[in-house]
Amino acid sequence: MATYEYFCNRCGSFDVKRPIGTASAEEVCPRCSNTARRVYTSPGTAFTSPAVAGLRELEEESRENPAVVTRVPPKEAAPRPTHPAHARLPRP
Ligand SMILES: [Zn+2]
């Protein structure tokens, strides 16, 4: 199914769902029963959320201008064990 948009001169635009390729050039307006003509719009592609778009931009930026590491980063303190049994494990 595809969503096709029609425009009624009295009521404005409305959508009609039909199988792909079966949309007619004109449709009856569901509100006033006037003849409405089909409006051609861009296909309803999936919306990319701003968070995902931002991550993709970072990925592309990293591909073009990767952050160069010139020395080993400082060693961080190991996290403390959360379970009492972990404290009995051998340590280096
Ligand atoms: Zn109408």
TrEMBL record:
InterPro entries attached to this UniProt entry: Regulatory_FmdB_Zinc_ribbon
Start and end residues of each stretch annotated as Disordered: 57-92
Residue ranges of every copy of the Putative regulatory protein FmdB zinc ribbon domain listed in the record: 1-41
Superkingdom, taxonomy of origin: Bacteria
Pfam family, one: Zn_ribbon_8
Basic residues composition-biased segments: 83-92
Name under which the protein is recorded: Putative regulatory protein FmdB zinc ribbon domain-containing protein
Species of the source: Streptomyces spinoverrucosus
